[in-house]
Design a protein that fits this description.
Layout (H helix, E strand, L loop, with lengths): L1 H8 L1 E3 L6 E3 L20 E5 L3 H5 L5 H13 L3 E5 L4 H8 L8 H15 L3 E6 L11 E7 L18 E7 L5 E5 L4
Parallel strand pairs: 3-4
Antiparallel strand pairs: 1-2, 5-6, 6-7, 7-8
């Protein structure tokens, strides 16, 4: 995995027939300015990583978190998509003392610990009041648990959490607006 990530960081996009052409890594000189340096670490998108917990009994939440920690340190950005449906999280939200199945416990632990280690959490969900003809659902963007003051980029420390309504139309286009701005 380390070798693959290092080989990705030596690739750069070009407009030739090949989408990725290797380029030699040139160490920055003392004359280089911050605006001229390029972050060569890869951008990693992992879609449905929580599926591993359900499909591979040998995969543990701590092992998966360890993998994510390694990927975070070796990438420019790590984006995860996970299922956060209420049935999967009902064990963690239950007040009746129900401990749930091992899968439910593992999924709830993985999801909440990942959210606490994230800078931002994006949620897509349906309407709390049920379905509506002119609204498909809600987009919510909130800070994760890993927003340390020294890690926040300039200008991002004052960004508030936000919530918008969205509608997916029949032609595939999407309309997004804030509540009350129909």
């Amino acid at each position: 995995m380390n070798a693959a990530l290092k080989s990705l960081s030596t690739l750069t996009p070009t407009s030739t027939s090949s989408p990725w052409t290797p380029t030699p890594r040139i160490p920055p000189t003392s004359a280089s300015t911050p605006s001229s340096t390029v972050d060569t670490k890869p951008f990693i998108l992992l879609d449905g990583l929580d599926f591993l917990l359900a499909s591979q009994p040998s995969v543990s939440t701590t092992g998966l978190q360890s993998l994510l920690s390694t990927l975070r340190t070796q990438s420019h950005a790590l984006v995860l998509t996970c299922n956060a449906d209420a049935p999967l999280l009902q064990t963690s939200m239950s007040t009746s003392g129900d401990v749930g199945t091992p899968l439910e416990r593992d999924h709830a632990h993985f999801l909440t610990s990942t959210a606490h280690q994230s800078h931002w959490v994006l949620q897509l969900r349906g309407l709390d009041t049920g379905s509506a003809r002119d609204v498909t659902g809600v987009v919510r963007i909130s800070r994760g648990g890993d927003n340390k003051e020294d890690d926040v980029e300039e200008g991002q420390d004052d960004l508030p959490d936000a919530e918008w309504l969205y509608q997916v139309k029949g032609d595939g286009s999407v309309r997004v607006w804030s509540r009350g701005d129909y």
